[in-house]
Every structure is written in C-alpha cells, then in structure tokens.
UniProtKB/TrEMBL annotation:
This is phenylalanine--tRNA ligase. Residues 134-289 form the Aminoacyl-transfer RNA synthetases class-II family profile domain. It catalyses: tRNA(Phe) + L-phenylalanine + ATP = L-phenylalanyl-tRNA(Phe) + AMP + diphosphate + H(+). Residues 291-381 form the FDX-ACB domain. One of its GO terms (cellular component) is mitochondrial matrix. Keywords: Aminoacyl-tRNA synthetase, ATP-binding, Ligase, Mitochondrion, Nucleotide-binding, Protein biosynthesis, Transit peptide. Its EC number is 6.1.1.20. Is responsible for the charging of tRNA(Phe) with phenylalanine in mitochondrial translation. GO terms for biological process: phenylalanyl-tRNA aminoacylation. It is found in: Mitochondrion matrix. Belongs to the class-II aminoacyl-tRNA synthetase family. It is an enzyme of class 6 (ligase).
Amino acid sequence: AAAAAALLEVGGVKIAKEDVVREGDPTNNVPDTIFSKLGQQLHRRDNHPLGILKNAIFDYFDGNYSGKFTKFDDLSPIVSVKENFDDVLVPADHVSRSYNDTYYIDAHTVLRCHTSAHQANLLQKGHNHFLVTGDVYRRDSIDSTHYPVFHQMEGVRVFSPDEWLASGMDATSYAAMDLKKALEGLARHLFGAVEMRWVDTYFPFTNPSFELEIYFQEKWMEVLGCGVTEQEILKRSGRMDNVAWAFGLGLERLAMVLFDIPDIRLFWSTDERFTSQFSEGQLGVKFKPFSKFPPCYKDISFWISDIFTENNLCEVVRGIAGDLVEEVQLIDNFTNKKGMTSHCYRIAYRSTERSLTDEEINHLQWSVREAVQNKLNVVLR
Ligand code: FA5
Ligand code: MG
C-alpha cells in the first residue's frame, strides 16, 4: 500500500518518487519541494485562477477559429533533453541547458522548462493548430514574481501556401502579421482596452521573434514570447512548403494582472481565504488580500567559491523554508585584498497565511545556515 501511495500519475504516466528524486546522483538535481508540485496541475482546476484564465483563452480561440485548435493540457512534464532543447534548435552551449537553470532527472531527461518541448512531436503527429498548457520548471531566483514552477500555454498555427499566396505577401510577413493580429485580439479579449507594444527579441526556434508587453500599473510587463517558426522545425516534420507561427505565454503573469494577485506563491495556496475567492468562468474578479502578515528579514554572509551560484542558494533556502520564504536578495558583495569574495543575502520570511513566530523564524534561519554551509561549499562569516 505504501508503494502504491508513492506512485503519482502525470499525463497518464505512473511515476514513483525515486524515478524523479535521487539525492547523491550527480545527474539528478530535482529536490523534494519540486517533486511535490508534480501532478498538481493547477491549470486543470476550473475554480483556480490559472484554470479560469486557461478556459478564457480557450474561449477566444474557439470563438475565432471555430474549434480548429486542438487542446492539450495533460502532457507529462517529464520530457527528454531532445524534446526540450534539440528539437527546438536550442544550441548545444546555451545556458538554459545547464544544471544551474534546468531540473534534470538524469542526463537525458528533464522537467520541461517550457511548453515548446511539445512542438516538434505534435507537428510530427500531423497537428496544424494546437494549444499546449502545462506546468514548467526552472531553477531561478526568489521574489514575488518568480517561482520554480509556473505555467505556460503554447500555441502553434501552420499555414498552407494558398493562405499567403492570396494575400500577395511573402510567407514570413503573412505569418508574422497573422500572429500579431491573433495575440492582440487575445489581449483585448482578456483585458479589454489595454496599451500594448511589440518588442523584437531572439528565440532559437522562431525568426523573426517578438515579445508582447502590456502596460500595467505604470510599467511595461512582458507577457509572452512568439514568432515565425524556424523552417528547419517544419522541415523536420515533413512540411517543406508551409509556414507557421508559435507563441508561449506565462499564465501566472497574466493572472496576477487580471485578478490582482500580488504574490506568485499564492497560486499554490490551499487557504480557503484564497481559494474561495475564485470561481469557474469568473475572469478578472479582483482578489481581496487577507491582511498582509509582517515580513521578517534575516541576513546571511559567506565567502563564496568559484562554483557558487545564486540559483543553488535559492534552492537550499526553499528546501528548508518552502513557501515561507518570500525573497532572497543580494545586499552586499565585495572582494578583499586576498581575492576572496563575500556575499551577503537578505532573506525575507513571510507567510501568505499567518504570522510567523520569532522562534519559528530563528529555527528556519539556523537550519538555512547549516544547510548553506554543508551544501554550497561556502564559508559562513
Ligand atoms: C519561452 O519560454 C519560449 N518557449 C516562448 C516561445 C514559444 C517563444 C513559442 C516563441 C515561440 P520565455 O522564457 O520568455 O520564453 O517565457 C515565456 C513567458 O513565460 C514569459 O513571457 C513570461 O510571461 C513567462 N515566464 C518566464 N519566466 C517566468 C517566471 N520565472 N515566472 C513566471 N512567468 C515566467
Ligand atoms: Mg522572455
């Protein structure tokens, strides 16, 4: 019975914890805290802000493309390095492939870091219009808009020659125009009248590539990346004569704006004061914060070594404090005459649900210090 309970089902695949988390195996860097997020599928809960948003985006595509887009929201987040990187032309030396940025299950298997990991397979299966929604995983820093698990929706549309030939435009311009029109329409569907702008950018899998920014609370916020699919990707799926567009949008970013959700950790909250505020089909109901509990700041200083990275520190802190850590911020950085470099980080502890006691925080900080010393090859000061 114990063994059965340890089996988790993701995307129709049964997995055991020891298939994903193996401490001491240098080809594996998935901690318990990340394993606990697998299979939760917040985007498939109709009463959760991410599910409500997903459904609203589906409504837009159903309404404008008469159901032509096939939807996938239960594909396993465990994918091969080939699917996550090679198939979308990510160069062999790209930083996103490093153990510092990506969760590896073994040398050939990762937790997908974007929903683009499914593009090539679905194209190969013959799909020409599809939306893929899912949880994605990235080793990253800690603050109110970054969490090591978040959700993306990928969209792909393939055109056949008759579609652009009739327009008199070249294939790439036609696809880029259609892409921008589709996404501007989506932004208006979700936000009503909003100020938005296109910014040129780079992705290995699209050319040209763009980001859409939305003006929100007096700032431009990046909500998605997109572009015209590289011909090489289409060619490999047997489509020599087609063009396509693709986009990948961040559901949390959009949901934080639509629902006024101030902290990305709240998406994972099971506190009824959070969950009860959202219901199916209710897009953009503003979240009323239950009183904000006081933060407590603790500093930690140490001499770093060559292999120190901030992502590794954040993982150690999350491993101890979980969602009680709100932010980890570098506040001091200097190198002494002997060439030793010291970092001081300020850790903000704050629960989204209750006040933390001094005793609890002191205990957390003590455990963090111990873990930092033992796991990060640094010397505490
Ligand atoms: C990508 O992941 C590309 N795969 C998107 C894409 C797909 C481009 C298809 C072209 C064609 P990027 O890393 O910028 O790109 O992430 C896309 C979106 O995810 C961002 O615009 C943002 O909205 C969201 N996002 C990225 N990182 C985070 C994070 N740490 N926390 C929350 N949302 C994030
Ligand atoms: Mg980006």
